[in-house]
Amino acid sequence: MKVIIFCGGKGTRLREETEFKPKPMVEIGGRPIMWHIMSRYARYGFKDFVLPLGYRGDVIKQYFHDYKTRNSDFTIDLGSGDTVVHNSGACVDWKVTLSDTGEDAEKGARIKRVARHLGNGPFMAAYGDGVADIAIDKLVAFHKAQGKLGTFTGVRMPSRFGTVSTDDHGNIESWEEKPVLNQYTNCGFFVFEPEFLNYLSEDEDCDLEKAPLERLAREGQLAMYCHTGFWQCMDTLRDYELLNKLWDRGSVPWMQY
């Protein structure tokens, strides 16, 4: 089963880090957040990735083109250009397909534009800016058991603010600091049947989360896998600093089983 990692967005809310590189290349502990996400899938045996490129896609291409030499000792003959890589154990056995899908395309269009790289079976997809300790094998098993065309992963989000309940006279009945909300939000980590491609178009404005998934939901073809463990996106500088603090402390649940 192939895995799409969305990596074409501009990450404007993290401009401090994304002015010269795409958001999936922003680093946690010295490695791009995209690498951390791909490592999660690889731990469960899913190592065939498709990357739909957009904003500063050349940076991602260069990173994977030079992956071996970046992560190993090597000897280069400057006369012939021949290079011998001395494997340091840091290299991985992933297969990565990089495909230009346009700088301004929405995610639905990006999936459709890389369809030729997906084969004929089910495929997965994930946002390129969030890490989680999701058990990928359980997600896939859940999707198969539901028998629907699509599954997304839902998480219950903590409120950014505290909440206060009062009676009609202004008397406080409860005070709760940043409670976990009852509603679920989509954190990505999708599984799709190949028939889902028929819900998409290559038009730039084909937004995955709008018409395609809304249609799946209306037709009873969308399931939600509930994740109660760790998940954290990297939308802002505060998120970036939080994830790197976790890494520095050795608290990295997304790298553990």
Please, could you describe this protein's structure?
By secondary structure, the protein is α/β, with parallel strands linked by helices. It has a single domain, classed as Spore Coat Polysaccharide Biosynthesis Protein SpsA, Chain A (Alpha-Beta Complex), CATH 3.90.550.10. It contains eight helices and 15 strands. The strands form five sheets. Strands 7-4-1-8-13-10-14 form a seven-stranded mixed beta sheet, with helices on both faces. A two-stranded antiparallel ribbon has the order 2-3. A hairpin with a 2-residue loop joins strand 2 and strand 3. It is globular, with a radius of gyration of 20 Å. The two termini are 20 Å apart. 34% of the residues are buried.
